[in-house]
Amino acid sequence: MKFANKMKVFDLNIFSKLEEKRAELLQKGMEVINLSVGTPDFRPDGHVIAALKEAAGIADNFKYSLADLPELVEAVIAWYGRRYDVSLTPQQVMSVYGTQEGMAHVALPICNPGDLVIAPDPCYPVFMFGPRMAEAEIYYTPLKKENNFLIDFGSIPEDVARRAKMIVVSYPNNPVTAVADYAFYEKLVAWAKKYDVIVVHDNAYSELVMDSEPGMSFLAVPGAMDVGIEFNSLSKSYNLTGLRISFAMGNTEIIRNFRCLRSQIDYGISFPVQKAAIAALNGPQDILERNRKGYRERRDALCGGLRSIGWNVPDSPGTMFVWAPLPEGYEKSWEFALELMDKTGVICTPGESFGPAGEGFVRLALVADVPTIERAVRLIRESGMVR
Q: What are the residue boundaries of the Aminotransferase class I/classII large domain, all occurrences included (predicted)?
């Protein structure tokens, strides 16, 4: 076709590829244990489901919402005040269709073609894909094990720091599962102020810190509001992944411009979803500790189980994932993941899909119950892939 050469070429994301492989295994009659996509299998709270159902029974709620309900914005502001001791105004809060959508679009009102964005390596793919959509250039700063997978600001070259328009940061981190402390965010804010760089922080996993206090907000650090914004999602905290609702919060000017952009491409989060979010934020919060406990039990079963069969996988400090170095004898993460699928039916995500520094690792999601995880460990042991 004549227009084919005029189109940009994009590849399917890794999860679409893994889904194709899953369908292939099922067609062969294999049992599949899918530990690739991080979609919670824990249930939302009953009062949240009830709020969604009630709102869905009102005909007017099927119209365009056009804006966030005032009571939703008030719920976010109150939650951030209670949870993080962060004060927000309505002008500093807006909803998006999940953090992935927000991260895909946030560079558009910030970056011009040719601007430089600093992204971690490895990182969740949309962290680099979003700036690419804005035609920005990307500088990858490595997350190294010897630095506890934290960004080393001193290692960013001076010319890169001075040229950078935006930096993407995310802790607790997907995929490497690292957790950052207050001192790290103080360094981030000081660095961003020094070089006049906009910070975009993804805080989707703040409620999933495994062995210490739940995570913090970047916005709690003095000066953070001057330099950036933060995304926080209800997907993992309240098991509402499919409802697709997250919030961008922080610097008033960034939020204003982002809201203007999205007003051209979006007519607002549906009223029933907004009502469910209000119920989640204002209602009982014991679901947060239940989720932490459930993921901790699964992490212990997976990481401890794999270590017991000779695969030296460290315990994850945060998120709902495990970042596992390849077993002895393997060097390529995609080749290992394919062999693991073919021999055991266990699906994981190759580390190389998160960037060059992810090579040598695979990511496993804690999205199966403990008995299923124990069965996965047994299948891996019986496969002989770990010696």
A: 31-377
Task: For residues 363 and 333, give the distance between their C-alpha atoms in angstroms, rounded to a whole number.
Answer: 10
29: left (phi over 0), alpha (psi -120 to 50) or beta: left
Q: What are phi and psi of 121, to 5 degrees?
A: -135, 115
**Cα of 3 vs its chain's centroid, Å:** 36
User: Tokens 């907000």 label which residue?
Assistant: 217
Residues of the chain with pLDDT under 50: 1, 3, 7, 9-10
Contacts of residue 12, defined as CB under 8 A and 6 or more positions apart, other chains included, come to: none
- Cβ burial, residue 333 (10 Å; 0-12/13-18/19+): buried
Instruction: Name the residue among 143, 134, 132, 135 with its Cα closest to residue 176.
Output: 143
The angle formed by the CA atoms of residues 119, 120 and 123, to the nearest 5 degrees, is: 105
pTM check: above 0.85: yes
pLDDT digits (tens, 9 = 90+) for 149-167: 999 999 999 999 999 999 9
Q: What is the DSSP string of 301-337?
A: HHHHHHHHTT---PPPSBSSEEEEEPPTT---HHHHH
pLDDT tens figures, 114-144: 999 999 999 999 999 999 999 999 999 999 9
Rg (C-alpha) for the chain, rounded Å, is: 21
